[in-house]
Amino acid sequence: MEEPAVTIVFDSGNWISAIRFGGIPKSAILHALKYDRIAICVEIEDEVIRNMRQKFGVSEVDVRSDMAIFLEDSIQVAIDRTLTGICRDPKDDFILECALLSNANLIVTGDKDLLSLKSFRDIAIVTAREYLDRSTNRTIRI
């Protein structure tokens, strides 16, 4: 019997790493595309675009084009930033809100402030490597 798909929110750091460098973050996103569902909000996309432009000089058009490949079948979530005071870095609360509103099972991040929570309202918070490791054996509760 096939296990139900998992809904995942990848933070901007994973998107940036996947687009710019590949590696584990890209493998995690590609795995999610094939086996699970990706949820995202405009705020995550905007943060990716802003950082790719500032740090690497990549145009908004190019970043949107790169992300569009991954987001074609994604769950688009509209957040209103009413969830506050959860993460020790308040700038990360919108990631939690996106996950909550999309009924996500996982948040995939490399951000230490988010990882320190370990979970939020039954939403596990893991690294890209942990997601891939858990996904190889779905008998482990994700």
What does this structure look like?
- The protein has 142 residues and is an alpha/beta fold.
- It has one domain: 3-Layer(aba) Sandwich (Rossmann fold), CATH 3.40.50.1010.
- It is built from seven helices and six strands.
- A six-stranded mixed β-sheet has the order 3-2-1-4-6-5, with helices on both faces.
- The mean pLDDT is 91.
Core attributes:
49% helix, alpha/beta, 142 residues, 7 helices, Rossmann fold
What's this entry about, in short?
The protein is an alpha/beta fold. Helix content is 49%, strand content 15%. The protein has helices at 12-20, 23-35, 42-56, 60-71, 93-101, 112-115, 128-135, and strands spanning 7-10, 37-41, 75-77, 106-108, 119-120, 123-126.
Task: Please give the structural blueprint.
Blueprint: E1 7-10, H1 12-20, H2 23-35, E2 37-41, H3 42-56, H4 60-71, E3 75-77, H5 93-101, E4 106-108, H6 112-115, E5 119-120, E6 123-126, H7 128-135
Parallel strand pairs: 1-2, 1-4, 2-3, 4-6
Antiparallel strand pairs: 5-6
Helix pairs in contact: 1-2, 1-3, 2-7, 3-4
